[in-house]
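Final report, closing paragraph on structural work. Over the funding period we assembled a curated collection of sequence-structure pairs, and we close with a single example.
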Amino acid sequence: MADQEVVRRRGRGGRERILAAATALFEARGITATGMEQVAASAPVSKRTLYAHFPTKDQLVVAYLSHLSETGRTIEGALDREDLPVRERLLALFTVPDNGTGPIRGCPFVDAAAEFPDPDSPVHAYTREQKQRFARRVTELVRTLGAPRPGVLAEQLVMLADGAATRAMVLNDAACGRSARAAAEALLDAATG
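Its predicted structure, as stored:
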């Protein structure tokens, strides 16, 4: 943008602005289709500031995914809802968010793993850790319901949740969660009924 002067904000908050800009761009365009220059321009911060906070794009992507997880903006956020009984928390995994204004994004961890297919890349490794953590959390909740094989049931539920999120994204149809929820109810009933 040599012919355009970009207005830069001075002071603190650069990291937060970078994460907010990255989140918006990654969700709208995808991760690999978004360049670091676009993130800097959208933040707005200088490239120097961007690289001071995130020396590599991998580090920015991991921070973005971590931010989504910490703020409950993933399907796993349903597990934190203490206002719901355990069974309802598990079934809430199958509510596919539909903002009504754009495409359904699915699971950001699955999306990121697909965009960074090398299993040794920092992004792919982070998504793998998060999916393993997700399965452990579901196992803990299933165990409280008295399921005889909580690990097996948890793996079935997380496979259904990931599948519903992925199918909803591919078809751009939030209703995909309803079929997965019905299957999850049947699994829970069989294991705990």
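DSSP finds nine helices and no strands in the chain. Confidence is low (pLDDT under 50) at residues 1-10. We thank the funder for supporting this effort.
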